[in-house]
Amino acid sequence: MTPPRRTPEGTSPQDATTASSPSVPRKAPGVKDVAALAGVSVGSVSNVINRRDSVRPDVRERVEAAIAQLGYKPNPTAQALRRGTSPLVGVAVFDLTNPFFMEAAAAMERVLSREGYIMTLSSTHASVQEERELLEALGRQAVRGVLLTPADCTHEAATRLAAEGTPVVLFDAANAPEGIPSVSIDDRAGAALAIEHLLALGHRRICFLNGPADMRQSAQRLAGVEDALAHWQQLTGADNVRLTVLNATAYTAQAGHCAAENSVSQALQATDGTAPTAIFCANDLLAMGVMSYLRVSGWTIPTDVSVIGFDDIPLAAQMPVPLTTIRQPMDELGTAAAELLLSGTDTPARHLTFNPVLTIRESTAHPTR
Amino acid sequence: MTPPRRTPEGTSPQDATTASSPSVPRKAPGVKDVAALAGVSVGSVSNVINRRDSVRPDVRERVEAAIAQLGYKPNPTAQALRRGTSPLVGVAVFDLTNPFFMEAAAAMERVLSREGYIMTLSSTHASVQEERELLEALGRQAVRGVLLTPADCTHEAATRLAAEGTPVVLFDAANAPEGIPSVSIDDRAGAALAIEHLLALGHRRICFLNGPADMRQSAQRLAGVEDALAHWQQLTGADNVRLTVLNATAYTAQAGHCAAENSVSQALQATDGTAPTAIFCANDLLAMGVMSYLRVSGWTIPTDVSVIGFDDIPLAAQMPVPLTTIRQPMDELGTAAAELLLSGTDTPARHLTFNPVLTIRESTAHPTR
DNA sequence: CTGAAAGCGCTTACAG
DNA sequence: CTGAAAGCGCTTACAG
């Protein structure tokens, strides 16, 4: 053997000086260094790291001492290459800026980092194109798993990724394919809850400000709204509820503000007796934007008009008019998703559904008109 | 050569059947497959990928055709191991749940993904311990770089990481060490701006609800408050301004609400003529919590008391009482930080400082008491 | 310009 | 139980 430890090409100027010139970043110790120090082979070092029990106690002790002395940490990249899987878990949400996702992401990170994984958080901007690209990139990274809020209803890319062996769990996706585990709340039931609350308060002219029509969440919440209405009519035998459905362009406060300005306010000002007395917004952010516009336009909440949201983001309770809303347990959702992912693929795919709960605060009241 | 392509251990049941049983996940093609198809060596394949110009045009074409036909994508893990750097960029913030950080993170992701990097977003919970652990983990991942909101004022772990060769840029850190590039706004000037605004409106009894006293942001904003006061006294020659400084336990709406309940409201109710007529909150979230409590307690904003925040998160404009605040250009901050990171370490470390700007909305007015 | 070979740092059957 | 060796998929001097 010649001086073999360096790559032939990697001889930087500093390397020419004494092995450990103090200002030069010391090369991190590797298995070989540990093996040398402990007087064993690299295989044994690896064994104490990966299969502790299959190694004689005294060897283990020597190796562990060497590891401690050198401050040795395995190189995760090399482990990933060899094992075919890395300590990364990819999390892909629609929008990094939406508190709903971030609450869930924070919960996910809690369980992932507790188990030694690193969370890779990215946004798909609810685009199926970006989702596909991201999923492919994550697949190539050999991530330990992927937690995805799917934009693509066909679940094509996700299914492929799963078929290639990467555990995937769908988050906030109701119609998950059989083979892929999922965690979500019952959006439909949640929306029904909101309408029932409004109905119970006495509202008969209701505006539903939904999100973009092509999103699954929107479709389901609309279905829930219609469920509640149908049920009500069946119960009362009367066809006395008027529903106005509007769509915002995104699930953001800004979009809510715009929608309020452009369409909600017109509905509210109808003089033919159809003006809504309550607005159900498909998420809290939308509700905030709406309330903001309403206030500027001189409406008082809930006196002039009731507003109810969806999600119960932390800010909902902190609004000047604390928002009545449908609570999604974001924390539990995130935790469950992460745990499901790590719990392994051995069991058949499970689909967890959480129940939304009506949280009454001050933005809803009996109608005065 | 014997049948050499498989790892000796990796012979799963399916592999025993015909090479490409349809239900089995096809092994992704590698350089060797491309080389074989193109009739060249793997070295040449690698060359067309990494040093396009050093390869004869006709060879390049054949290789590119093979790559396209096979849908070949380089394995980033192997590249990372060999090159010593991965396509990952680590971003570490205090709190995934704070819109300020997430706005910036969204901007960072925009530039990073445009350049082909993957963002790894994690939270340090503003703990120096967690920060150190995270930085070490990222270092071991051989990430392309790290964008950090530092909790540790000594910048010890960050400095070490940088010394080991990982590019680091500090984000929202004013007192960055010489050697590490940083991006931040002038917190001190921003806080002064807020106080000047209040003073100009005629307020003479001001409450400053700061964040946790041990955070750098808090210290600087307090300094800015004092600057403005000193300057005012110098200008007017009068010592007629009364400042009350309070600390919230965190930079959250919740903490703001608690602070309002526990201390701010007491100050407000002082009957000895010291009751503040305006409150400067060290961030918008705090301001939201405060406003929420104030409203419940019967105060009207801005008539009874003015409130001004800091950050200008998107929701600030969407509050029922749109919040006057000091705007940080989160987008630009994030973009600049990411670009600084990728622009390379060749230039001397740069420290970019952005100017905060006073954004007047409706939560501040002349005092009425 | 191209091919063959070494090596990144690890893990894992396999033979002793 | 341990050591030596092969190999994960790529990149890069180096010799032709």
From TrEMBL, chains A, B:
<protein>
    <submittedName>
        <fullName>Ribose operon repressor</fullName>
    </submittedName>
</protein>
<keyword id="KW-0805">Transcription regulation</keyword>
<feature type="region of interest" description="Disordered">
    <location>
        <begin position="1"/>
        <end position="30"/>
    </location>
</feature>
<dbReference type="GO" id="GO:0000976">
    <property type="term" value="F:transcription cis-regulatory region binding"/>
</dbReference>
<dbReference type="InterPro" id="IPR010982">
    <property type="entry name" value="Lambda_DNA-bd_dom_sf"/>
</dbReference>
<dbReference type="Pfam" id="PF13377">
    <property type="entry name" value="Peripla_BP_3"/>
</dbReference>
<dbReference type="GO" id="GO:0003700">
    <property type="term" value="F:DNA-binding transcription factor activity"/>
</dbReference>
<keyword id="KW-0238">DNA-binding</keyword>
<dbReference type="InterPro" id="IPR000843">
    <property type="entry name" value="HTH_LacI"/>
</dbReference>
<feature type="domain" description="HTH lacI-type">
    <location>
        <begin position="29"/>
        <end position="83"/>
    </location>
</feature>
<keyword id="KW-0804">Transcription</keyword>
<dbReference type="InterPro" id="IPR028082">
    <property type="entry name" value="Peripla_BP_I"/>
</dbReference>
<dbReference type="InterPro" id="IPR046335">
    <property type="entry name" value="LacI/GalR-like_sensor"/>
</dbReference>
<dbReference type="Pfam" id="PF00356">
    <property type="entry name" value="LacI"/>
</dbReference>
<feature type="compositionally biased region" description="Polar residues">
    <location>
        <begin position="9"/>
        <end position="23"/>
    </location>
</feature>
